[in-house]
Amino acid sequence: MGHAQNKDYSQRDYDAIVRDGEELISTHCCFCGMQCGMNIRVNKEDKSVLGVEPRYDFPMNGGRLCPKGVSAYRQAEHVERLKHPLIRKNGKLEQATWDEAMDLIVSKIQEIQGKYGKDAFGIYSGSSMTNEKCYLMGKFARIGLGTKNIDYNGRYCMSSASVGFNQSIGIDRGSTNPWSDIKFADVLLIAGSNTAECHPLSMPYIWGARDRGAKLIVVDPRQTKTALVADVHLDIRPGTDVAIANGLLHVMIEEDLVDHDFIQNHTTGYEEVKELVKKYTPAHVSEITGVAVDKIITAARLFGQAKTGMTMFARGVEQHATGTDSVSNYVNLCLVTGKMGKKGSGVATFTGQGNGQGGREHGQKTDQLPGFRKITDPKAREYIAGVWGVDESEIPGPGLSAFEMLQALGKEIKGLLLICSNPIVSSPTVGDVGEYLKSLDFFVCMDFFLSESAELADVVLPSTVWIEDNGTMTNVEGRVLRVKGIDRTPGETKRDWKVICDIAERLGRGQYFQFNSPEDIFNELRVASKGGTADYYGITYEKLDKMQGVFWPCPTEESEGLPRLFEDLKFNFPDGKARILAFEHKGPNEKTSKEYPIILSTGRVVFHYLSGNQTRRIEALRNLCPDPYVEIHPNLAKKYNIEHGEPIKISSPRGSIELPARVTKITREDMVFVPYHWGKSLAINHLTNPALEPKSKIPEFKVCAVKLEKIASHAGEKHG
Amino acid sequence: MAKVLYIDYERCIGCRACVIGCEECSGHDHLSRMFVDELNPGETVAASPTPCMHCVTPACAESCPVQAIAIADDGTVLSASLEKCIGCKNCTYACPFGIPRVDDVKKVMYKCDMCYDRTSKGRPPMCASVCPTDTIRFVDEHEIKSEPPKEVQFKWDFGGTVIETRTVIGMPDTETNRYGFREGDGVQS
Ligand code: SF4
Ligand code: SF4
Ligand code: SF4
Prior knowledge:
A: alpha/beta; seven-stranded mixed beta sheet; 23 helices; 30 strands; 19% strand; globular; B: alpha+beta; 8 strands; binds iron/sulfur cluster
C-alpha cells in the first residue's frame, strides 16, 4: 500500500544492514522540510545511539542524506545536552529539580497574568517540532494560558509563500505536486532558492528532469551550486523578483506563449496583468534587475514553450517587504501558461524548517486555529471551541506576530515561554532582541542545548532530542509522516508534550490536556482539522506506517490523501478559478545610499541549520564550516583593497560586525552575502532590516543596505 | 555483475556527506577515506569527490613491499591488511591519484575499499548510499563503460602510461553551462 506516485520517487531497492547487538529505529531527519527517512543505529541493551544507516526504501530520499542528515544523530549523546532543569539564581543558571522549576513557572505565570492580564504571558514557538507539539502549543496558549499572544518562528520562514499561495490558488500547501513530479517537468524555474545546498535531496529529482532533457532556469543573485548547472541563470539584483517575473510575463504574452484556454476557463485577472506588464519590456526589466536582455527573453521562451513545468522558490523570494507579491507573481507564470494540475506542472516552495508545513497548519500562528482556520472566523471558532470543550468566548482573538511579539517584550508582554526556537540569532536587529528578552519579568525556555536565547532565560527545561520523539511531521510536499523515537529520556529530560500538559494541570486547566501519548494528541488534531483546509481527519498512525506517509487533505478514513492538487482544475475559491494578480515592482524597503552603497543578502550553507544551535555543536559540521564570512566579488574587493581572508567591517544603519572576506566571482558586484547561522558577535542579523512584509509579517532578511570598511590595522598595508 | 562507482562531477555540491558517511561504515573506524576538492575556488563553487579509483592494475598494490593490499574477487582494491602493513608509505607515492593515506599513529595505510563489508553484501558503499545529489552512483561496470549516459573517462594517461580504472568519471557538460572548467567571469552586475 502506498501512493501510486511512490514508484516515481528516488527510493532504491536495498535493505538496511543491521549489525550484531543493534536495532534500527526508522525515523526522519530533524533538519529541513525534505524530512529524509533514515535509520538510527541503537544499542539494544542500553539504548545508546551508535550511528546512522541508510533507509533506502523511504520514497523521498531513498537512503540519501545531506551532511546534516548524516551527522544529525551525533546530537543524541552530545556532552552539551541539557540533562537537568536550570533556574537562574544570583544571575547564574543553576541545576534545579523539576518541582522547583515547575512551581516557579506556574507561580510566575499566575503572578504576571494576575497583575497585567492574560495576554501579558506569550508563547514564542517553533516549527522544527512534531505536528502534535505544534497543535498542543496552540491549544495550550488559548486554553491553558488564555493568551492571544502566541506565534512561531515559521513567521520568518514561509509566511509569504503561505499568503501568496492563498491569494493566488486558495490553498497553502508547500507544493501542489508530489516531489516525484519534478522529474516530469520539461522546464523548471527555481527562484531564490539555493536548492542544491539548502534542500540537497531535491537534486535527484532535478537531475531526473535534466536527464529527460528538461531546461533549468535559475533566478538568484548568486551563482550558487544550483545556478551553476542552469541553462539560464537570471542573476538579478536582490529584491527585484516582481520585476523579473513581470518581464517574463511580458515576453510570453508578447510572443503568444500563453495558454488562452486555461486562462479563459480557469483563471481571473489576466487582462489586468496583461495591461500592467506592457511596460515591463526586457530592456526596462534589465535596467531594474541587472539581468541581460537576451537572458530574459531566452528564459521566457524556455518557460513558455515547454509543455509541462514547475516554478519553485524559497526564502530568497519570500523574505522581502514585497514577498507575497513575488510569490504570487511566480505563480502567475504557471497560471498564464497552463502549467497546473498535471504531472510535472505546478508550484512549490521549499520548506526550510523540518516541520515548516505542519507547523503552520495547526494553530500556533497567532491568526489561526487548527486546520488552517482563521481565528477571526466565527464558524471556525465555534467548531474548535466544540472540539476543545470550551465556550467560544474563551478562545482569544489574534495577537501579535513573531517579530512584533519580540518588540512587545517587557511592554505588553511581561512573561514568555520559548520553545524550539532561538530568536536571538534568527531575528532581525538581534542586538535589540537581546534587550527585549532581558526586559522580561520572567522568561522560560524549553530546549535540549543551551541556545543563545536560553542563556538569558530564568528557567530552562531540558527537552528530549528528536530521536527520542514520537509523532508526525509534514514535509515539503504536504506528506504527513511518522517519526518514531527511541524510548528513552536521558538524565532528567522530559518530553515537551508531557511538560506542557503538566503545566496546564498545575494551572488548573488539566481537564483540557488529558493526553497519554502523542497519538492521543494526533487523534484530537485530526478532529480539530476536520473540514478545514489542511484536513488530517482521515490520517491515522496506522495508515501513515502502511503508506510511507499520507498527503493532506485526507478528509475521510477511506481517503488515501491527495498527492497532486487541482487535477480537476478547480482552485480553492468559490468560482473555482485561480487568481492571476498584477503587481508593480516596488523594490526593497531599504534602498542603498551614498553612505550605505552595497546590498547585503543573507542565507544558508549546506552544513548548518537555522540558528546553528544544533549543527554548530556537531564537530564534523563545525569543522567543515566553523565561522561566517562575507562573500564579495573580486571587483568590489579591489575597490576596497580587501584581500581574500582579510577581516572587514560590515555595517548597516542598525549595527556592524567584523568578518573575514571570501573573495569569489559567484556573487554580484553590487552586493555581499553572509550566512546567518551564528550568534552573538558573529550574528549577521545585527545588521538586517526589521521591516515587515505587510501581509505575511516576514522580516526583510534578504536585502538591506550596508557599507564595508577595511579594518584599521590592515589599512595602508596595501596600495592599489 | 561487478558494480563500480560512477561519479558525475557536474552534480557534486561539495557538501561532503560522502566524507561524513564514509565514517559510518563499520570497517572504517570512524575515519573517512573520501576526499572532496573545490575545483576552482573563487571562480565557481564546483567541487568533486575522489574515492579510490580502484585501478585495474593498481600501482599501490604493486608497490607494496609486503603485499598488504589485496584485490578482492570482484576487483575492489582493498585497504591494507592490518597484520601485514608496515606503514612504509610506498603506496601513497605510487598511487597516481594520491589516494592511500597512512595513519601515523597506528602505522597502517587506509584508503577507500568501497565499503567492502557493505558491497560484499550487495549494498552500495556509504558514499554512494548517502550522496544527496546522485553524484556518486553504484552501477554495473560493464554497462557504464559500454553505454554511458554522457561522456565518461576511465582510462588515464600518465606520461605515456595508461591506467584503466574501475571507477568511472562522467565529464561535465561545459557547452551548456560554465561549470567549473571554463574561465568564469562571475555574474553580471
Ligand atoms: S537536512 Fe534536509 S536534505 Fe539534509 S538530510 Fe535532513 S532532511 Fe534531508
Ligand atoms: S556527498 Fe555527493 S554532492 Fe556531497 S560532496 Fe560528496 S559527492 Fe559531492
Ligand atoms: S603503507 Fe602499508 S599498504 Fe602501503 S605500501 Fe607500505 S606496507 Fe603496503
